[in-house]
Amino acid sequence: MQEYLKSTDIIDWKHPIVLEQALKLSNNLDNPIEIAKCCFEWVRDEIYHSSDFQMNPVTLKASEVLENKTGFCYAKSHLLAAFLRANRIPSGLCYQRLSVYENGPPFCLHALNAVFLPRIGWYRIDARGNRKGIYAQFDPPAEQLAFTVKLKGEADLPEIWLEPLSIIVNTLSKYKKYEDVLSNLPDIPLIL
Question: Are strands 121-125 and 142-144 parallel, antiparallel or unpaired?
């Protein structure tokens, strides 16, 4: 479990502004489930999804997301993992493969988090940000994610990653405008 608490180059919870905000979110709370919920709701509601709000710059590191108050689902998941890890709550990254237009190809990856909660175990949460048709919540043990897998070619990928996939890092590092990321959303082929 110690691996899921590490501060890294991207999940940089030891960065002063990330650590300060993480500790503010857990102030006066001692229950890991309450802390996780507070961190989840703050990232979901206070960090604007780059595409939904047509915001630049494209962010990658947790500290960049917090400084700019914007990020794609990938970057928002990095910030949420950083907040949870700063509060000594194990957290990792998860992915879904979803249809971009909800009707088949093309597909793209969508990022969310898994958090390890006492008496529950690994629990997936999606701080992407709510909007019409998307209503992600924190209600363990029931998952209420932003998206459900419905179509052939879509998948819930079962892994819980310590670090973001390299294709995610490459995409968010290469492009500077949200429109360019939208035109080049990362995807991986499914192994059947």
Answer: unpaired
Question: At residue 69, does pLDDT exceed 70?
Answer: yes
DSSP at 16 = H
Q: How many angstroms from the chain centroid is the CA of residue 27?
A: 22
Three-class DSSP category at 136: coil
Q: Which helix (H) or strand (E) holds 182?
A: helix 178-182
Q: Quick one: three-class SS letters along 65-113?
A: HHHHCEECHHHHHHHHHHHHHHCCCCEEEEEEEEECCCCCCCEEEEEEE
* Contact criterion met (CB below 8 Å) for 71 and 171: no
Amino acid (1-letter code) at residue 38: C
Long-range pairs for 14-19 at CB < 8 Å and ≥24 separation? 14/86, 15/61, 15/62, 15/63, 15/82, 17/63, 17/66, 17/67, 18/62, 18/63, 18/66, 18/79, 18/82, 18/83, 18/86, 19/86
User: Rounded mean pLDDT of 153-174?
Assistant: 97
> What are phi and psi for residue 163, nearest 5 degrees?
-130, 160
**pTM for this structure?**
0.97
